[in-house]
Every structure is written in C-alpha cells, then in structure tokens.
Amino acid sequence: MDLSPLVPAVMKFAAFIGATIGAGLAVLGVGLGLGRIGAAAAEGISRQPEASGKIQTNMLLAAVLVEGVGIIALVICILAIVM
Amino acid sequence: MWNSRGARAAVACLALSLFPLAAVHAAAQEQQQFNLSKVLFAEITDSYEHPFARIPLFTIGTFTLAVSITKHFILMTAVGLLVLASMFYLAYKLKDPFRTPTRLQSLFETLLQYMREQVYEPVLGPEGRRFHLLCFTLFLFILYGNLVGMIPPFAPIKPPGESEAVWLGGAVTGNLATTLALGLITFFVFNVSGMRAKGAFGYWRKLAPEGTPGWMLPFTLLLEFVGILSKTLALIMRLFANMIGGHVALLLILLLILKFHSLAVGPIAVIVDLAIMGLELFVAVLQAYIFSFLSALFIGIAQRTH
C-alpha cells in the first residue's frame, strides 16, 4: 500500500491541528496573565485611590508585555498554517 | 438636531468605512480564481518581487547588490520625512516662545514633555540625558510608521515595467526587516554605552551581580547574555507581531466577503472591522510607547552599577 500521495494532505492536516491548539493555549496563558494583572491593579487602586494614576500606568505596561508574548505565539501559529 | 460637529463626525465615519470596501471591490474585479493567502500576502508583505525601480550598487560575479525601491521603501521614506517635518515644525514654532501655541504645537510639546519627565528621566537618570534623543526618535518613527500603516490603500499602482499592480498599504513596522533594524539599533546602543560606562570587559563581568561565588560565574554570565539576546528578540518580535496580527485580522474579515461571494456579508464585515480598527489604533500608539520605553530601560540598566 503506497501511502506517499497522502503525505502532503496529512502534513497540512497536522499543521492545522497544531496551529489551532497552539493558538488556543497561547490565548489561555495570556488570559490568565492579564486577569492577574488586572486583579492586582484593581486591588492596589482600592487600597490607595490617590495612587491610581501610577498604578494604571504600570498595569498597562505589564499588560502590553504579557500580550506581546501571546501575540508572538499567535504569529508562529499563523506561520504554521501558511507554510 | 444635526449640528455641524455631529454631521462632520458622521460623514467621516461613513467615508472611513467605505475605504476598505473600495479595496475589496477592486480586488474582486479580477476574474481569476480567488486565492486568499495570495491576496493576504500581497497586502501585508513587501512587494520585493515587483519593485518600482532597481538601483544596482555593485556586482561581484553573478551576484548583484541592488537597492530595490519597493512599497515599504517608499512608505518608510514618507514616515521618516514626517518625523523630520514634525520636529522642524515644533522647532520653528518654539523660536518665538511667547506666541500662543497652536493645537498641533501643544500636542507635540505635551508629548515630548510627558515622555521626557515620566518615561525617560526615571529610567535613564540625570546622566543619561544624551539618550533622550534616540529614544524619542524611535518613538516618533514607530508611532508614525504604525499610524501610516492604518491608512487603507486606495488603489493599486502599477510599477513601470512590472506585470502586477502593487497596493501602497500595509505597515512599515509590519516588516520583520524594519523591526530587526530598530531592535539592532537598541542592542548596539545599550551594549556600547554600557561598555563605555563600565569598561570593555568590566561591562560583561558586571552582568553577574556582586556576591556570586566563583563557580557560579560562568553560568550566571551565560544566563545574563542569553537574557540580553532574548530581551532584544522579544522587543523586535513584539512590534512586528502586533502590527502583523492587526492587519491579518482586518484583512481576513474583509476577505470573507470575497470568499463567500456575497455582498450580504459586507456591512457586518465592515462594522466588525471598524471595531478592530479602533483597537489597532490604540495598539499602534501603545507599541510605539513600549518600544521606546523598553529601549530607555535597557540603556539605563546597562549604564547603572547595580
């Protein structure tokens, strides 16, 4: 039984499955991370409302860094689908 | 009811929502089989295969090094000229500081003052004033590059002597080569400035903190060096991935119209795209801020003795 004509289709299929599972896991990590950042920021603001400007700035900074890592993973998933 | 500001805003929103439809309509004019990934790639990546001009520099045997004027080249030149023009405008207005500042001038002034006082001064310190210029230039270049990339391409332009038309759109910073160059600038600046501040070998030796025992020194130095490389790589990839992700999301939703071959998807796609475009504008400004802030942070870390 010659299975070699099936190889490109199987590779495409495997690439799709890997990419979508990878994207889901990446979004899972980013969601957990951002949730914790938001919770810590909200607690900090509730303890000391006059520091809310600084806390907001730091929250946005940490959120962008965590989001950046997630988006890098998503670009790799897009790359897996396309190539 | 229809006051002039509301009417102007409504007309602006309607006009903005029609631009992506123009791109999609022009793409649908082609009668050949619609290949989604080909159209997507042509929109996002640089038009290296169909340059506007090729200026050969030198030839070694069969290898010719040429400067090809591609889509991103033109956009990058425009962005650079915008950065220069905006700062020249600010300098011209500041020659007479007692005039009432115009709105654009006070926008630039507020931006510069905010970045200086809140972002660069705390991380660079008083002796790092000479790096303010580099970091603010990076900020303005990336900001303008991201924002110019949000303008949808109006019509395809046919380069002279080439077969396919080129859409003059897409972000300059969505090109891995551009962000790689910006990241390498930061990498060289913070390493060279660290070596100048602490000595050529002292900088690399002082990467490990003070009290590490002798046997742990190679591992700590290796870890710190890999940390420097990975921080630079994350800086490069973060900007690239954010811009590419935004454009891919926008284009995929619009290209659904062509995939389904029906105009009923049109209004839904455009409304969803308007929402994503709002997020993308926010991300554009934020990513420029983050890049320049992290550059300043790395330079500050390299300069300081822990």
Topology:
The complex is a heterodimer of chains A (83) and B (306).
Chain A: H1 7-47, H2 52-82
Helix pairs in contact in A: 1-2
Chain B: H1 4-28, H2 36-44, E1 53-60, E2 63-69, H3 71-93, H4 103-124, H5 132-149, E3 156-157, E4 166-167, H6 176-198, H7 200-205, H8 217-260, H9 265-303
Antiparallel strand pairs in B: 1-2, 3-4
Helix pairs in contact in B: 1-8, 1-9, 2-8, 3-5, 4-9, 5-9, 6-8, 6-9, 8-9
The gist of it:
The complex is a heterodimer of chains A (83) and B (306). Chain A is mainly α and 83 residues long. Chain A contains two helices and no strands.
List keywords for this structure.
heterodimer; A: about 80 residues; mainly alpha; F1FO ATP Synthase; B: about 300 residues; two-stranded antiparallel sheet; 9 helices; 4 strands; about 5% strand
Our estimate of the beta-strand percent of chain A is: under 5%
Q: Could you tell me which chain pair has the largest interface and how many residues each side has?
A: A-B, 13 and 16 residues
Helix/strand order of chain A: HH
Spans of at least 5 consecutive residues with low confidence of chain B: none
Structurally, the number of domains of chain A stands at 1
| Biggest sheet character of chain A | none
How many DSSP H or I helices of chain B? 9
Please, what is the CATH homologous superfamily of chain A? Answer: F1F0 ATP synthase subunit C
User: What is the overall number of helices of chain A?
Assistant: 2
Oligomer: heterodimer
Ranges of chain A where pLDDT stays below 50 over 5 or more residues in a row are none
Strand order of the largest sheet of chain B: 1-2
Count of beta strands of chain B: 4
Q: How would you sum up the global shape of chain A?
A: rod-shaped
Question: Using only CA atoms, what is the Rg of chain A?
Answer: 20 Å
Helix content of chain B: 55-70%
Q: Which structural category do the helix and sheet elements of chain A fall into?
A: mainly alpha
The main pleated sheet of chain B reads as:
2 strands, antiparallel
What is the second-level CATH architecture of chain A? Up-down Bundle
Residue fraction in strands of chain B: 5-15%
CATH topology of chain A: F1FO ATP Synthase
